[in-house]
Amino acid sequence: ATGILFNWLLADTSLVRLDMTEDHLYTVSDASKRILAQLKVPVQVKFYITPQDKMPTQLKSLERDVIDKLSEMRVASGGRIAFRAIHMEAANVLGNPLDKEEDAKTKKDSLEARMIEKGVQPFSVQVIGEGEVQQQLIYSSLGIAYKEKEEEILPRIMPESLDELEY
């Protein structure tokens, strides 16, 4: 019973956190910590991303990296940042002239089609493989909602912009 009580008290609490990455990618700046500590209500963050198995090889760890950064921000905010990943595929919104009419209607009603109206759009990345360079459409955007304000979309979250994510 004592062990269970101790675990319950320390759940979602961090005693010591170390960022061993070369550029301290997962260390939240002091200025951001002060801002996050002042949050009165939870901030809702949605990470719209292509599933890992459909991502180009060089971007397969992107979801994990962004979630890790958001986790650090959640700890710094005292748990007032709530986030989740929403998997989306560009193929669900791209139209094919050979599709049947009801398949086209299903694509129009898909999550991806509704998200385009909000500003979440797939973008093209270069994929190098088997001696050729191709273009592939992927999703990687953040939606941030606070209080009654409309969700703000941050497009094109890429590995090179992770260090700027908290700003």
How is this fold's topology laid out?
Layout: H1 2-10, H2 30-37, E1 43-49, H3 62-76, E2 81-87, H4 101-108, H5 111-118, E3 123-129, E4 132-138, E5 140-146, E6 152-154
Parallel strand pairs: 1-2
Antiparallel strand pairs: 1-5, 3-4, 5-6
Q: Which regions are unreliable across 5 or more consecutive residues at pLDDT < 50?
A: 104-108
Shape: globular
SSE string, helices as H and strands as E: HHEHEHHEEEE
Q: How confident overall, as mean pLDDT?
A: 80
**Beta-strand fraction estimate:** 15-25%
Structural Rg: 19 Å
Enumerate the strands of the largest sheet in spatial order, edge to edge or round the barrel: 2-1-5-6
Percent helix among the residues?
25-40%
The rounded distance between the terminal residues' Cα atoms is: 43 Å
The number of distinct helices, counting runs of at least 4 residues, comes to 5
What is the subunit arrangement here?
A: single chain
Short synopsis of the structure:
With 167 residues, the protein is α+β, with helices and mostly antiparallel strands. The chain is 29% helix and 23% strand. It is built from 5 helices and 6 strands.
Outline the structure in words.
By secondary structure, the chain is α+β, with helices and mostly antiparallel strands. Helix content is 29%, strand content 23%. It has a four-stranded mixed sheet with strand order 2-1-5-6, covered by helices on one side. The chain has a two-stranded antiparallel sheet with strand order 3-4. β1, α3 and β2 form a beta-alpha-beta unit. The relative contact order is 0.18. About 3% of the residues have low confidence.
